[in-house]
Specification:
This protein is α+β, with helices and mostly antiparallel strands. It has five helices and ten strands. The protein has one domain. Strand 3 and strand 4 (about 100-105) form a beta hairpin.
């Protein structure tokens, strides 16, 4: 007498497959979130090291922040990352474009945007160009000029363009774009400059008349969070919509490149100014 043969019925197999599919659907997003969290932590570490390097530079140069870009003997623009590299020694000097020299790789590369360059951008009102739009000298900014160094951004993540580059100028100091390109400006929340968040083609930038504005504004690429270094050298994550231009960008005596003038009118208490009541 032959023994009975045992096996799974088709229904039982289908039940097991369905259970596995359900578990996969639950666990795979969790694993993806965990990987992104690890990348965000690595990115934050990059910005902390940049903050430390910037403070070392400031101490070596009479408490003055570096310029955004200078011209070398070959006529190439050399940006601030190259200036900080000796303090970090983590990255390679390379070209972002034919005439732009920057630092590629190392701590200057975010693991969530590996192939992008210049995605960590300096505040362009602090680490700025040598001249204003009217060709007048742009006064250098010292640590003492930043009245709230623990609140004013020094370096932030920004978006990149179709060539995988962030802007050479850095995070714009212009209130118009941080204010959502509207009047009166909206300096906080998802309708502020946060609405221009994105990489490559960002429709809100196109609609506002500046197709690459995303490369000049914070990029919240870590599940709605952007990592930032502040003017005292510390780094932290900022949730999208939390940034406030009046407290995190503007400081007394800050120049705006386009106007070639100081922007203290933004917190003038004598009229209904955009930052009235939030003046430094």
């Amino acid at each position: 007498m032959q023994g009975k043969k045992f096996g799974f019925t088709l229904i039982e197999l289908l039940v097991v497959i369905a259970i596995i599919a359900i578990l996969a659907a639950i666990l795979f997003p969790v694993f993806a979130q965990a990987r992104e969290k690890a990348r965000a932590i690595s990115c934050l570490s990059n910005l902390k090291q940049m903050g430390t390097a910037a403070m070392m530079y400031v101490q070596d140069y009479d408490e003055i922040y570096p310029l955004a870009a200078t011209i070398d003997a070959g006529g190439n623009r050399v940006d601030w990352r190259v200036v900080l590299l000796p303090y970090i020694k983590n990255g390679t000097v390379g070209a972002a474009t034919v005439v732009d020299t920057t630092v590629i790789g190392g701590i200057f590369s975010c693991p969530s945007a590996n192939n992008a360059r210049r995605i960590y951008a300096a505040h362009s009102g602090i680490i700025h160009y040598p001249t204003l739009s009217n060709n007048a000298p742009w006064p250098v900014v010292g640590l003492a000029a930043i009245n709230r160094p623990a609140e004013v951004i020094l370096v932030t993540e920004v978006g990149y363009d179709a060539q995988n580059n962030g802007s050479i100028e850095g995070m714009t100091e212009d209130f118009w774009w941080h204010g959502g390109a509207t009047w009166p400006p909206i300096f906080q929340g998802n309708l502020s400059g946060a609405k221009f968040d994105g990489d490559v083609t960002v429709q809100t930038c196109i609609d506002a008349g500046w197709p690459t504005c995303n490369t000049y504004l914070p990029r919240y690429r870590h599940s709605g969070v952007a990592n930032m270094t502040f003017s005292d050298g510390h780094a932290k994550a900022m949730v999208k919509g939390r940034l406030n231009y009046c407290t995190n960008v503007l400081f007394p005596g800050m120049y705006k490149w386009y106007d070639s003038g100081i922007q203290d009118w933004l917190f003038d208490p004598n009229w209904d100014s955009p930052c009235r009541g939030q003046q430094p």
